Amino acid sequence: MENPDKKKGTLIGVIGGLAIVIPLFIWVGVNLNGLSQATKAIYFYNPHESVMTVELNGTPHELQHRERKDIKLAEGSHRLKSSLNGKTLVDTTLSLSSENKNTGGLINLSQEPFYLWKEQYGGMMNMNLASGNLKGLTIDSTVIVGNIKEYPADQIFIPREWFYGIDSEFQDSIRSDGSGTTNFTGESIAKIFDKRGMVEYWEENYGEAAE
């Protein structure tokens, strides 16, 4: 039996006759400004099950499955390479701008897509198709509908648009400290996922409601 303490509030969005239950969160708990400051790093990430080797300006780094590695980069050009099981994935040059350096983000050398998912905290999101809040994507064989954005596999630098990083989890509750942050828009909070993580999150939180 489902634990009632873990249930979240819901709202219903209808797309083409399909009713989707969207959980809501309560507005108390996490200092978003501090979290925003903590997530401005630039990092590599390996979504593959095998070890991925990345080279930054000739220096190799090995990343285990779902390992994140923060790096420090100056503005300007940087040589990047990556390989998996002896096969080259990426061999390119990245020009890091001052804006991207200050914003932070993910350097994607995996040749895998990543996803931005927004959850709604405290209040109701406009769930009409015309609002642009809802989008449908098929990831492998899983259809996901919600406030989602795909970063393509060939996008090398993904500038930070999220509060919750690749290795962080959504909180059940949040609060605003009133100072204002660049990524907090209304009541939507964003997190970045790798492909497997996005599917797992969807199936755990929305799968039954979408069937």
Summarize the SSE layout with pairings.
Elements: E1 9-15, E2 18-31, H1 32-38, E3 42-45, E4 52-56, E5 59-63, E6 68-71, E7 76-84, E8 87-96, H2 98-103, E9 105-107, E10 114-121, E11 135-139, E12 142-146, E13 148-151, E14 157-159, E15 173-175, E16 188-194, H3 195-205, H4 207-210
Parallel strand pairs: 2-10, 2-15, 3-9
Antiparallel strand pairs: 1-2, 3-6, 4-5, 4-7, 7-8, 9-14, 10-13, 10-16, 11-12
Distinctive features:
211 residues, mainly beta, four-stranded mixed β-sheet, 16 strands, 45% strand, globular, disordered N terminus
Show unreliable segments.
1-32, 34-38, 179-186
Structural class, from secondary structure content? mainly beta
Which sheet architecture does the biggest sheet show?
6 strands, mixed
Rg, rounded, reads: 18 Å
Task: Give the fraction of residues assigned to helices.
Answer: 10-25%
The whole-number mean of residue pLDDT values reads 78
Order of helices and strands: EEHEEEEEEHEEEEEEEEHH
Strand content: over 45%
**Extended strand count:** 16
Shape: globular
What is the tally of helical segments?
A: 4
Could you walk me through the main structural features you see in this protein, from its secondary elements to its overall organization?
The chain is mainly β. The protein has a domain at 4-43 and 104-210. Helices cover 13% and strands 45% of the residues. It has four helices and 16 strands. The chain has helices spanning 32-38, 98-103, 195-205, 207-210, and strands at 9-15, 18-31, 42-45, 52-56, 59-63, 68-71, 76-84, 87-96, 105-107, 114-121, 135-139, 142-146, 148-151, 157-159, 173-175, 188-194. The strands form four sheets. Strands 1, 2, 10, 13, 15 and 16 form a six-stranded mixed sheet that branches. A four-stranded mixed sheet has the order 6-3-9-14. Strands 5-4-7-8 form a four-stranded antiparallel sheet. Strand 4 (52-56) and strand 5 (59-63) form a beta hairpin. The longest helix is centred in the last third of the chain and has 11 residues, at 195-205. 19% of the residues are buried. Mean pLDDT is 78; it is low at 1-32, 34-38 and 179-186.
